[in-house]
Amino acid sequence: MAGRLAILAGSGALPGLVLAANPGALVVTFRGVEADVAGVEASFEKLGGLFRLLRAEGVERVCLAGAMQRPALSPIRFDTKMIALAPRLLKAMNGGDDSLLSLVVRIFEDEGFTVVGAHELVPGLTPERGLLIGAKPGKADLADAARAAAIHAALAPVDVGQGCVVAGGLCLGIETVQGTDALLEFVARTPEHLRRGAKGVFYKAPKAGQELRVDMPGIGVETVRRAAEAGLAGIFVPPGGVLLLDRPAITAEIAARGLFLAAWEGA
Description:
Blueprint: E1 4-9, H1 14-21, E2 26-30, E3 40-42, H2 47-56, E4 59-65, H3 80-93, H4 97-110, E5 114-115, E6 132-134, H5 139-155, E7 163-167, E8 170-174, H6 180-188, H7 192-195, E9 201-204, H8 212-215, E10 218-219, H9 221-229, E11 234-237, E12 243-244, H10 247-257, E13 260-263
Parallel strand pairs: 1-2, 1-4, 2-3, 4-5, 9-11, 10-12, 11-13
Antiparallel strand pairs: 6-13, 7-8, 7-9
């Protein structure tokens, strides 16, 4: 794919993975946003300046990689471009992540940039069809996965979260704005009598209509650790629908914890 790449970097391992696979990329970080890679600093309040920077650096493709918290914006610092975009952006910021991120993609595309996903730039970043790491899931695990997928699909229209834990057919928790770690910590505190002896599974998948170029769900080593601490049997993800952040380390952790991770396409 032609054209220089810019990585608009947030926190976590993903920006570093994209940079390692694309060493000529321009890295851009944002004032007030934690980033785990170094780069040229930009500001959400001066999007016109960001677009000029990208063009001056010969950038044609843009990848938004890493976690970014919603910034606290100061209207008195807006440049001309941001003033023009502010009504649309501020309205979207009052809604869910899906609408906001879809708008961000449209804005970059309107400026002439091609938005690409990290999974398009880093080989092997998403699970292939049929992937199974660790033990083979049993019938009870598959039944729990189907139940979790149904709950996940039912919640998708209200833009709640990307994960669900089910044990013995009972929903032990859903992922909300606090994220995966908080969900699995909550599940770990579930009294044994409520679990009825079932271990359960964690199902992680994108929501229907989610903009995967900028907001694909991810799983890392910490996810595996917390799933084990929650007493779960394993993790189900859809093929091509979740980022595996450091697959070798995930594989080793799955083996060490006696869990499984399966790319599952549903019952």
